Amino acid sequence: MEALVRKADASSHSYPDNTPVWVFPLLAYLIWQEWQALRPRTRPIWRMLIVPLVFLLMGLSRLAMARDNGLEPLLAWFVAALMLAALALSRGPQLLAVDRQNGTVTRPGSSIPLVRNTTIFALQYAVAVATAMKLQPHAAVAIIGHAVSGASAGYFSGWAVALLRRYRNFDSGENAN
Question: What's the rounded Cα separation, in Å, for the pair 79 and 149?
């Protein structure tokens, strides 16, 4: 996620100006996707996995690009990932209908994905800005940044697994929240 914000002078507070152009279409896509989630909709299962994949990759990027920050940030990443993966596995998405022949699922409308995903995007962006400001050497910033990234990777991994499990077991009544 460090690639989200170009290296900027710490005295310059114009981070939207220093943000790569691709970040804004990504944010617009996420908002558009989740705005549609406000009403019930039927989607191919593979399309339901795009947003979780984006957030999983954003969460893994901090781990892949980690500098020598010590053990604490790494531990924060794994603890947050495990905790939120467990939450997502237990909550998961609710499915109203499954059509395996066409590979689609129908989900009820909800504002939760919009709030959750824009909040996580904003947190990931804030971590990228802190990194661009070279605040990463500060222990608290490193730990918080890794925890946010781990939470993102863990939650969306768990959510994707829960979606696929509920898709597979829909007829057995496992869909109840």
Answer: 11
